[in-house]
Amino acid sequence: MKLTPQLEKIYSHERLTAIEAQRRAQEIAFGPIVFQVSRLMVKLGILELLSNNREGLTQEQIAEKTGLSLYAAQVLLEASLSIGTVLIKEDMYQLSKTGWFLLNDNMAKVNMNFNHDVNYKGLFNLEEALLEGKPSGLKSFGEWPTIYEALSSLPEHVQKSWFGFDHFYSDESFEAALKIIFDGTKKVNRLLDVGGNTGRWATKCVQYNPSVEVTIMDLPQQVAMMREQTKNIDGADRIHAYPCNLLDKSVKFPTPAFDVIWMSQFLDCFSEEEVTSICKRAAESMDENSRLYIMETFWDRQKFETAAYCLTLTSIYFTALANGNSKMYHSSDMERCVNNAGLEIEEIVDGLGLGHSIMICKKKNGDN
C-alpha cells in the first residue's frame, strides 16, 4: 500500500510503549462513554466555563454556574480528568489543550455533531452491516435502501448535522477548485455536476463564471431540495436538472458532451463496482475535449495523520448507515476504477481545502 511519507512513518512502525498501548486499549473499550461525556462537557457549557476562567474553578463553582447537581458535575469532571480534557491543580479544574480543541476546533464540532446525531445509534448495527453488505444502521431512522433517499425525510437536527458535516469539508475546497476548473486554458460553457445535492457547487459556479450553464444530475429528492435552495440566487436560471438514479446501470449521462463533468465527494458514496459503472457511463458521454474532475479526500494523500484518522473512520458511516458498501477511498483504488472505465488520469492536484485532491481524467486514446 502506497502512503505519503508522513503516513508511512506513523502506520508502519509501533509507536507506543507497552503501558501506552494498554492505556490505548482501554480508551477504545470505553470509547462510547468517552464520547458522550466529552460531548456533554461541551453541550452543558463546562468547557466554555473553564475557558473563560483560566485560573480554574472548583466543582462546586462549576455546578452552581451550570445549574447541574454537584453529583452530575463531579462525575463529568472526574471522567474528563481521565479522558484528558481537563486538568486539576489543588481543587481547581482547568481546561487542557485537548479540551480547548474540543471546544474551539470547528472540525471537532462538526465531527461530534455528525457522529452523535447521524451515526451513534446506527453504529450498534455495524456487525450486521458488514456481514450483509447493507446499511443496517439506517433502520434507526426508518426503512430506506440508502441514506440518500432518506435525507429529505430525516429529523431536522439530523439533517442539520449531516449537511453540516458534508458542507464543512467541501466548502473549504470550493474556492481553490473553481480556479482549477475555470483557469482560462479551456472554455467551460457547459458543466455537469453529478451528485450536486443542494446545489452549493452549482451556485458557486454560476456566480464565479457569468456564462457557464450547470446541469445537476442527482436523485429526484435531491433535485427537489436543490430547487428550493437555489430558487432565489443570482444565476438560478443557469442551473438545470437531470433527475435520475445513477445506481440504475441503464441510466446514461446526458449529451452532447459537456466541457466538464464534476464529481465532488460523490464517488465515495458507491462501491468500486458502482464507481466503475458510473465513470464508464461518464466516459461514454465525453469527447476528446471533455474532462472529468473527481474531487475526493483520499485518505492516503493527506498531509497530516489526523486527517487520515478522520477519513478512515468516516468510512464506517458509509458501511453502517449510508449504503453498506462504500468508503473514503485510497487513491489507488479510485485510479483502478477510473482506468477500468476507459479513462486515464491526466493530473492529480492535492492540498485543496482541508485535504481534498482532484483527479483530472480524460478518455483513453482510441476511445474518443
Tag the structure with descriptive keywords:
single chain, 368 residues, alpha/beta, Arc Repressor Mutant, subunit A, Rossmann fold, 2 domains, seven-stranded mixed sheet, two-stranded antiparallel ribbon, methyltransferase activity, S-adenosyl-L-methionine, WH_DNA-bd_sf
Descriptive report:
- One of its GO terms (molecular function) is methyltransferase activity.
- Residues 182-342 form the O-methyltransferase C-terminal domain.
- Residues 22-93 form the BVU-1015-like N-terminal dimerisation-like domain.
- There is one protein chain.
- The protein has 2 domains: 5-104, Winged helix-like DNA-binding domain superfamily/Winged helix DNA-binding domain (Arc Repressor Mutant, subunit A, Orthogonal Bundle); 107-363, Rossmann fold (3-Layer(aba) Sandwich).
- The strands form 2 sheets. Strands 5-4-3-6-7-9-8 form a 7-stranded mixed sheet, with helices on both faces. Strands 1-2 form a two-stranded antiparallel sheet.
- It has helices spanning 5-11, 18-29, 31-43, 46-52, 59-66, 70-83, 97-104, 106-119, 126-132, 147-150, 156-181, 200-208, 220-230, 272-285, 305-322, 331-340, and strands at 86-89, 92-95, 190-194, 213-218, 239-243, 260-264, 291-296, 343-352, 356-363.
- It has 16 helices and 9 strands.
